[in-house]
Design a protein that fits this description.
The chain is α+β, with helices and mostly antiparallel strands and about 170 residues long. The protein has one domain: Alpha-D-Glucose-1,6-Bisphosphate, Chain A, domain 4 (2-Layer Sandwich), CATH 3.30.530.20. A hairpin with a 3-residue loop joins strand 4 and strand 5. Helix 2 packs across helix 3.
């Protein structure tokens, strides 16, 4: 009899916990250093489909323990971010501290291969509100890796174009 009562009480205190994990991977023709510099430049998030701006001072390199705020494109309420882990030029792990009931972790990984530079972007949502949050953020999360690669390649092409222009403007140009 006591065993049945214990199981009944234990079931009442059980929490609903859902976990969603999605990985996105893109390949870039840019160098791994250029991709990494774009990831760690937390002041320039113009490429990001969700974030509008951050309060990170220009030139600050992300380190574990850094807490910063960012404003999303959807609401003027700032969201807090916590940098969990940084492996130089390889991995950046960030935890989003937005809504109680949802734990969100973002991981950016850069890998250099013969084919080019691979960028892996992982989103992990945990908590009882994660299915609801995921239904809103899924289309935007799918675009983050592609938008980052496009921003890096655009910047690289602009740098090459400006170097080409300076070569053409030589003193022998009549």
């Amino acid at each position: 009899m006591q065993n049945w009562l214990f199981k009944f009480i234990h079931r009442k205190h059980r929490r609903i916990c859902a976990s969603l994990v999605r990985h996105y991977r893109e390949i870039s023709s840019a160098s791994p250093d250029e991709v990494w510099q774009k990831i760690v430049d937390l002041t320039d998030v113009s490429w990001h489909p969700i974030l509008k701006s951050t309060n990170v001072p220009y030139g600050l390199v992300p380190k574990p323990g850094l807490i910063f705020q960012a404003v999303t494109r959807f609401s003027p309420i700032p969201v807090r971010f916590f940098v969990e882990r940084v492996d130089r030029e390889h991995l950046l792990s960030i935890r989003v501290l937005a809504i109680p009931g949802v734990e969100e972790r973002l991981i950016y990984q850069v890998e250099s291969t013969v084919c080019g530079t691979y960028l892996s972007y992982s989103v992990t949502l945990r908590g009882w509100l994660s299915p609801l949050i995921w239904s809103f953020s899924r289309p935007y999360a799918a675009r983050v890796a592609r938008a980052l690669v496009e921003a890096v390649e655009t910047t690289a092409l602009q740098a090459v174009a400006s170097k080409r222009k300076s070569i053409n403007d030589s003193c022998f140009d009549f």
